[in-house]
């Protein structure tokens, strides 16, 4: 089977940019050592770019880990911007706090321990950029919860739109093309269900960026 996301392309994308800073390099090293699945620098660069392209002021993340994706977003936010980090693991969230502070982003950030899908209910919109990176079988639920709070002109980015440890790319690809594969695990079905939901939503236009583990980018057009 052809590689779905070739390493050579990833390496090239990293060389093109945007450039990480020393804190990001340290986070990358930690992710390597711990085997932690951050979005990686190719997607991080796109998070920063997308936030800038929609002039984002407010960002919400479903699943922030130790703050890697949030840090890239924060680099594009204005001084009076806001980013909400959510995480079920207290230790990860504490590390996120430290990394964000080191980047000078602590004043922009709110740190919420617990289920992101419950947390989002406590926030008023609008959000200009949203990252969906929680449990794959709950992507659709995350989208439904945040959908009314997404600004017109805003953007929703779902990670793992192509791959992740448990995602079966052949089954995912078949589902997205309307076929009926024999065996589909919950993670794969969750991503396919999300892509189907957001893809059919007339208020959004969706396109795929095949970097990192693949991101589906959905732009709110009305
Ligand atoms: C794949 S990691 C990525 C984290 C981060 N976005 C990054 O790029 O480094 C996903 C994280 O989401 C957290 N998570 C999963 N389900 C969650 C939920 N329902 N609410 C909050 N955090 C969740 C996990 O504990 C994990 O740290």
UniProtKB/TrEMBL annotation:
A biological-process GO annotation: methylation
PROSITE patterns in UniProt: SAM_OMT_I
Keyword Transferase: yes
InterPro entries named in the record: SAM-dependent_MTases_sf, SAM_O-MeTrfase
Source superkingdom: Archaea
A Pfam family reported for this protein in Swiss-Prot or TrEMBL: Methyltransf_3
Gene Ontology MF terms: O-methyltransferase activity
Keywords: Methyltransferase, S-adenosyl-L-methionine, Transferase
Annotated TM spans: none
CDD domains, alphabetized: AdoMet_MTases (cd02440)
Methyltransferase found in the keyword field: yes
This protein's name: Predicted O-methyltransferase YrrM
């Amino acid at each position: 089977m052809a590689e779905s996301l070739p390493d050579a392309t990833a390496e090239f994308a990293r060389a093109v940019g945007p450039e990480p800073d020393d804190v990001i390099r340290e986070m990358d090293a930690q992710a390597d050592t711990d085997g932690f699945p951050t979005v990686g620098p190719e997607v991080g660069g796109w998070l920063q770019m997308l936030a800038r392209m929609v002039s984002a002021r407010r960002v919400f993340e479903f699943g922030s880990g130790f703050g890697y994706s949030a840090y890239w977003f924060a680099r594009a936010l204005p001084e009076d911007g806001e980013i909400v980090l959510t995480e079920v693991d207290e230790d990860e969230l504490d590390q996120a706090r430290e990394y964000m502070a080191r980047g000078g982003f602590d004043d922009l950030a709110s740190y919420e321990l617990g289920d992101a899908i419950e947390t989002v209910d406590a926030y008023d919109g609008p959000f200009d950029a949203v990252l969906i990176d929680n449990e794959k079988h709950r992507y659709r639920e995350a989208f439904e919860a945040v959908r009314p709070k997404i600004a017109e002109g805003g953007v929703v980015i779902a990670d793992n739109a192509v791959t992740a440890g448990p995602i079966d790319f052949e089954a995912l690809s078949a589902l997205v093309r309307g076929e009926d594969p024999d065996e589909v695990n919950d993670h794969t079905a969750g991503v396919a269900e999300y892509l189907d939901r957001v893809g059919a939503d007339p208020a959004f236009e969706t396109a795929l960026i095949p970097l990192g583990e693949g991101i589906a980018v959905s732009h709110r057009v009305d």
